[in-house]
Amino acid sequence: MPAIVLIGAQWGDEGKGKVTDLLGDRVDYVVRYSGGNNAGHTVVTPDGQKYALHLMPSGALSPTAVIVIGNGVVVDPKVLISEIDGLAERGVDVSRLRISGDAHLIMPHHRALDRVVERYLGSSRIGTTGRGIGPAYGDKVARMGIRVQDLLDPGILRKKLELALREKNQMLFKVYNRKALDVDAVTEEYLGYAERLRPYIAETRVVLWDALDRGETVLLEGAQATMLDMDHGTYPFVTSSNPTVGGACVGAGIPPMSITQVIGVTKAYTTRVGSGPFPTELFDDNGAHLRKIGAEYGTTTGRERRCGWFDAVIGRYAVRLNGITDLVVTKLDVLSGLDKVRICVGYEIDGERFDDMPMTQTAIHHAVPIYEELDGWEEDISKARSEAELPENARRYLARLEELCRCRISVVGVGPGREENIVRHELIPARP
């Protein structure tokens, strides 16, 4: 069986966790391949239980799937242990977790620098979560990162930490007037984490290769989304990794030819958290409606999400960039009650129309959306389980999204619950 990649097709928070959870009983492995605890997935089970996951793959709630944190993730061990304990307290079996020894660790100096640099930037800040993600990836690229496997060797851990703090303490103390970190205290803290995490650390590449060789199904779950990709997103207002499909190969260590399906998740409208361009952002009653009805507040930070109309330029870009084969449109129910709904079909920039993403940072900041307006619908669609049960205007809206994005819509979300979906095409066949 193949590897299947699950991609966010906007700026994140599209509902990837719900989709992963929906598919969890149909796959053998669920792999997180990028990001850190700056991301969050909210999963609501059929009995109404809500789980907020940050580092653990959303497949953690599957009773059978092996859950893997790949080498492309940056891991805050304190946060991960807290999640493991929280799930165990609620009766979730976490013994199937495997963590790549090559995943990099988020250290105290990463969190400290993330917060102080963001404050220092003032109005030019990126809008990070302050959890140390960017500095951890920066050290990885600078070849001075500390990895999960280093927890298993106290001598190596201390040596690497001493080298890192030689530079980072100078920055914290002399540049930003912050207290220097103590090598002994940090080493002791992280060796304590080592004892808790030791049973889960594995050579996850071989685990996944063997699974694919056996014909088992591997679902690769990205954090964040296409427009937050370091290379292909709205730079510099992006995350510090590659949540697009290419990042799945790098962040999990599997070959590209193993991937046979790419599922893109998009909301029926658009949101983003933090700073950066957002052409369809709304500042009127429609934006307030989307935020209130859609409960648009960050899973990880609690910050209000910026809300706007669906952007088909971004949708089409995500489909082409990732080779998306199936779209999942979530939160269609949030649009109920609006007299009119709009879709951005292109941009106007300095008098010129663009149907594709503009090349430059300046252009995207100056983009003015070109809208098509469709009639809305008043009906409550949360009970709909087939396309025929949707109002005619809702069906027209979906058909237009499908046409503009040039990709079939396979699943439509009509509520937050696991069962609140309309399945037009099965994403993964049910097990016999």
Automatic annotation (TrEMBL):
GTP binds at residues 12-18, 40-42, 305, 331-333, 413-415. GO terms for biological process: 'de novo' AMP biosynthetic process; IMP metabolic process. It catalyses: IMP + L-aspartate + GTP = N(6)-(1,2-dicarboxyethyl)-AMP + GDP + phosphate + 2 H(+). Pathway: Purine metabolism; AMP biosynthesis via de novo pathway; AMP from IMP: step 1/2. Substrate binds at residues 299-305. It is found in: Cytoplasm. Keywords: Cytoplasm, GTP-binding, Ligase, Magnesium, Metal-binding, Nucleotide-binding, Purine biosynthesis. One of its GO terms (molecular function) is adenylosuccinate synthase activity. IMP binds at residues 13-16, 38-41, 129, 143, 224, 239, 303. It comes from the Bacteria. Mg(2+) binds at residues 13, 40. Its cofactor is Mg(2+). Binds 1 Mg(2+) ion per subunit. It is an enzyme of class 6 (ligase). Coiled coil: none annotated. Homodimer. Plays an important role in the de novo pathway of purine nucleotide biosynthesis. Catalyzes the first committed step in the biosynthesis of AMP from IMP. Belongs to the adenylosuccinate synthetase family. HAMAP family: Adenylosucc_synth (MF_00011). This is Adenylosuccinate synthetase.
